User: Which sequence fits this backbone?
């Protein structure tokens, strides 16, 4: 049995505060139980959770991934922006053009995200998190399509996107140029296998697809840390 996308993890300077921000923006409920740490849960059990883990690494440039939030109407877009600002977010300039209709914000920890205008056809019927938009190569899009067994829903001009067969949030990669990686990513994927699954066999499968093993976390009995073909960290865990 192959692993599934269990969570998007944020390394955060103040995990509990960041969880409250995203819970308020998305309307997701906090997870309960010590095994979840600080996490919020999607309304659909088939979706991924968001986990907030302590991390004190200094920020070095923009994140390689950010959320694109959807809007059903111009009013809803304004409401989402206003709610984010009230909860501690702020407007930022990442080079967006005045005529572009999406709004670029940062959460209280400086992580960028966008509130997309209503009527965006690519993000139709995806949910409140329309996409996890990533800087990355075509190769890494192909890797994650095979790793998660999610079909490619976009593959053009070296830009790629995948989506679960059950629908929901898309994961996109913008193609070149990809900025050099200067330190650990603040956002990363956490994959999970059911307890009793063969973790070593799954690691071998991921390596055969282009992942790289790392020494970090090698002593953890239920968690392994790997790198995808673009050098992005991701973890694999056993879960109950």
Assistant:
């Amino acid at each position: 049995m192959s692993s599934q996308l269990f969570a998007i993890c944020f390394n955060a300077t103040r995990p509990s505060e960041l969880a409250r921000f995203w819970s308020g923006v998305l309307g997701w409920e906090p997870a309960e139980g010590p095994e979840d740490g600080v996490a919020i849960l999607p309304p659909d059990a088939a979706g991924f959770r968001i986990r907030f883990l302590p991390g004190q690494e200094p920020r070095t440039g923009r994140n390689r991934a950010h959320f694109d939030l959807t809007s059903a109407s111009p009013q809803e877009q304004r409401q989402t922006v206003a709610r984010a600002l009230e909860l501690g977010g702020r407007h930022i300039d990442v080079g967006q053009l005045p005529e572009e209709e999406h709004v670029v914000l940062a959460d209280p920890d400086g992580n960028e995200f966008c509130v997309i205008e209503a009527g965006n056809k690519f993000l139709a019927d995806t949910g409140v998190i329309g996409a996890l938009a990533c800087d990355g190569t075509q190769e890494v899009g192909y890797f994650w399509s095979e790793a998660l067994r999610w079909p490619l829903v976009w593959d053009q001009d070296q830009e790629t996107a995948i989506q679960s067969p059950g629908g929901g949030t898309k994961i996109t990669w913008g193609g070149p140029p990809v900025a050099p990686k200067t330190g650990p990513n603040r956002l990363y994927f956490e994959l999970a296998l059911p307890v009793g699954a063969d973790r070593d066999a799954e690691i071998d499968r991921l390596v055969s697809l282009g992942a790289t093993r790392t020494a970090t976390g090698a002593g953890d009995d239920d968690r392994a840390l790997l790198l995808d073909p673009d050098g992005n960290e991701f973890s694999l865990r056993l879960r109950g």
About this structure: The chain has four helices and 16 strands. The chain has one domain: 4-173. Residues 74-86 form the longest helix (13 residues).
